[in-house]
What we know:
Shape: elongated
Radius of gyration: 20 Å
Oligomer: single chain
Number of helices: 8
Largest sheet: 4 strands, mixed
Number of strands: 9
Strand content: 15-25%
Order of helices and strands: HEHHEEHEHEEEEEHHH
Distance between the termini: 46 Å
Amino acid sequence: MDWAKTIREEGQKSSVLQTDQLAQKYGIVPVAVTQALARQEKRGLVERVGEKAYFNLLAPNSSPRDLVNVLRKKAYISLESALREYGISTQAPRVLTCVTPERSRELRSKTISIKYRNLSPNLYWGFVKKTTRYGSYLIAEPEKAILDWVYLNLKDGISPAIDEFDFSKINRHKLLDYAQKFPSTVYHHLLEAFASEGATNLEDRPARSADTSPTP
Length: 216
């Protein structure tokens, strides 16, 4: 079997190669597929990104975003990566940052770096689906990306500075409404930041202390 040709052909349909699917499609035992792809990895045609998953480097217009919901069904891009994508922050992260209600995990290969941060299941909402050439991925709404970032920084004992964020595309009422679904420390951190720039009169809104969630 010409695996280089097969990988190139598969790359027209998907940027992710899954050993079980290839084994079933071509009538080969899974271990033989794994061995073959390991050889192709040495040739620089694929990269192993999971126990049974390889990233197809021959797939045109492929992106690490294609992997986000293959490696974790329940996950969405957020934090620094989403803030950068929406133009809220000018900082370019070196890894693709995501959140998940599952355990934290970081994936690193030669060309791909994806970091999954654990988020309470009660806070797993506020995302939309975007499509790629090969499929789709989930990404936080702009307001939710800010809140996830503030929340996880505070959880890590870091006081997040949002004064350099560009809020021109942000719905501040929506942001503060969403913030009430987070611990009260998140809500008050935003109020203090906005009050310091004289940008809002929403200080009289009641904050909630419990982790409750709206309908996704």
